[in-house]
Every structure is written in C-alpha cells, then in structure tokens.
Amino acid sequence: VQLLESGGGLVQAGGSLRLSCVASGRTFSSYAMGWFRQAPGKEREFVAGIRWSFGSTYYADSVKGRFTISRDNAKNTVYLQMNSLKPEDTAVYYCASRGPTSAGSSWSVRTAYDSWGQGTQVTVSS
C-alpha cells in the first residue's frame, strides 16, 4: 500500500486544518488506518485511527474533542480534521496502514503498521 498525505501548513492557534491521506496499490490488504505525528526531538506518537469496514474510531487523549478522523472508502482516502489547534500540535503528521493480522495490537503500536506516508508538516503559531 502506498500512502500520500496532503493538507499540512501554517495556521494560527485556534485555527483548523484538514489532512488527507490517499491509499493506492494493494489497498484491499489494509484493515485500518492511523494518523501519527512527530515533533522535533520527540518520538512519533499515535493521534487517531479508523477501521475501513465499520468506521470505528480511536483517539489519543491529547486530541479528543478537537480532531476527527474519517474515511471515504470509494476514494481510498482517510481524513484528519483538526480544530482548535494548539502550538503543541506542531509536528510532521504521518498516515499509516495496518493489515488484518494486526487486529490484536494496540492502535498506538507503530510496528503494527506496515505502510507509511512521507508525512506533512503542520505548524501552529501562538
């Protein structure tokens, strides 16, 4: 599965951005998708996840109530709507795909994901 993110940019605190991630290739092998982010000097962390089939969603506590993950199965696209952005949300955001054999793994386990996009920069100014 190949993944391509877009939609990053510079926004003021309190603003909004919507990220997109288009999947191509062996998309039938994808069971679920996740968004991660990595700030300078920090480890990559889980942000949100969604299952293709049922649309079940999962969020990190730090973004609950502000971010919304959604998917468009017909377009093989996953979105991350980010509202009420804070400077601490500044990071490179990555989307990732996981196959059905990873179903027993936690959403936040990076090794459960077998395909990653190149990332898109999100910068929130104060």
Task: Briefly characterize the structure.
The chain is mainly β. Helices cover 0% and strands 49% of the residues.
Description:
By secondary structure, the protein is mainly β. The chain is built from no helices and 11 strands. The strands form 2 sheets. Strands 2, 4, 5, 6, 9, 10 and 11 form a 7-stranded mixed beta sheet that branches. The radius of gyration is 14 Å and the shape is globular. The mean pLDDT is 94.
Structural class: mainly beta
The average pLDDT is 94
Indicate the low-confidence ranges by residue numbers.
Answer: none
Shape: globular
Q: Count helical runs.
A: 0
Per DSSP E runs of 2 or more residues, the count of β-strands stands at 11
Topology:
Layout: E1 2-6, E2 9-12, E3 17-24, E4 32-38, E5 45-51, E6 57-59, E7 67-72, E8 77-82, E9 91-98, E10 115-116, E11 120-125
Parallel strand pairs: 2-11
Antiparallel strand pairs: 1-3, 3-8, 4-5, 4-9, 5-6, 7-8, 9-10, 9-11
What labels describe this entry?
mainly beta, 11 strands, 126 residues, seven-stranded mixed sheet
